Amino acid sequence: MIFSLFRKDPRRTIIATLYKKVATASREPGLYASLGIPDTLEGRFEALSLHMILVLRALRGMASPADEVAKDLTDAFFRDMDASLREMGVGDTVVPKRMKKVAESFYGRAQAYDGPLNASDDVGLASALGRNAYGAEAPATALARYALAADREFKTVSLDVFLETGPVFPMPEAFA
Length: 176
Known about the structure:
mainly alpha, single chain
């Protein structure tokens, strides 16, 4: 029984691999150089949040056990955010307060992007992304086209393929 603690959980490995692919996609240099996301701590959070939201939306439309995968992936995201705060030197007593703000920001963005993504509303999505990713009232038109293209593509992928290959995001430079 004690040896089971040292075995690798295949589900945990799948989630870790999936999260790593999402995080890697959010660090694509073209997002910053071509699509204008600021290469700052806040900009990196915006890019990661956008990619997580797109993947979670895709999982929402897939058959079971996609809902469990989405939950585990969300947990991985928040564990990573917690670890990042601690690496930046945020004290143990402050981390929960900061994590609450991170969660509010993430879920607020998910709600703000959901409607325009559902309606394929590039103008509405560009406006929301401009406020969040750019921190300005200027619309993020190219970033919105990128997100809509990824969202459309993910609707054509099965859960098995999604877990095997991971999410394949378009090249940001194609939308600049």
